[in-house]
Design a protein that fits this description.
Layout: H1 3-13, H2 25-38, H3 43-51, H4 54-60, H5 74-82, H6 88-104, H7 108-113, H8 116-124, H9 131-138, H10 143-155, H11 170-175
Bound molecules: fe (ii) ion.
Fe (ii) ion is lined by residues 28, 52-53, 153.
Length: 178
């Protein structure tokens, strides 16, 4: 199976809920991509949004594991796997989307809107960034796109929403292959 078909079948077959939320991982990622589209983001960022939690699928299918050290860090797993196939501008924001949450959580208003599950995982992911970490992150080339991705991510946990099919993103995925 080629990589695009493999990715599409992971989305089509996924039925497991996104940890602690009421939507599946597939629904969550498609909603994230739809928010990026709604906000007129670049095709790169729409594609990042669509793939941002792909690491969760890898955790479910250990055959796909690229690294033997299975530490459960879904952003790294997703990044390490996807970077073999997709352009840098698509995969880099994926690598940083957890850091972006740790950055954004410095703002009390943002912290308050996090779901309970997201607050719990924030702690496990290293907690809120301190000033030094935040300054370093701000100069990262992918800072802005990671922050945007993170905001769509938080908004993409809605139930009962009509969503696109993964097949509608096939051409986009193909267009971002290396
Ligand atoms: Fe997510």
């Amino acid at each position: 199976m080629n990589i695009i078909d493999q990715i599409i079948s992971s989305y089509a077959n996924n039925k497991s809920p996104y940890i602690g939320e009421k939507v599946t991982i597939t629904e969550h990622m498609i909603q994230t991509a739809m928010l990026a589209e709604k906000n007129n983001c670049s095709s790169n960022l729409i594609c990042s949004s669509l793939l941002h939690d792909y690491g969760h699928f890898i955790l479910e299918n250990p055959d796909d594991l690229v690294s033997k050290e299975k530490d459960g860090k879904h952003e790294d797993l997703g990044y390490e796997f996807l970077k073999k196939y997709f352009v840098k501008n698509v995969v880099e924001p994926i690598k940083y989307h957890v850091k972006a949450k740790r950055y954004l959580a410095r703002d009390v208003k943002y912290y308050r809107i996090l779901s309970e599950a997201s607050k719990v995982s924030l702690k496990l992911q290293g907690g809120i960034m301190d000033d030094k970490q935040a300054k370093e992150f701000e100069v990262n080339e992918f800072f802005k796109s990671s922050i945007k991705l993170r905001k769509f991510d938080e908004g993409a946990k809605k139930t009962g929403l009509k969503i696109k099919s993964i097949n509608e993103y096939k051409n986009l995925l193909i267009s971002k292959l290396i």
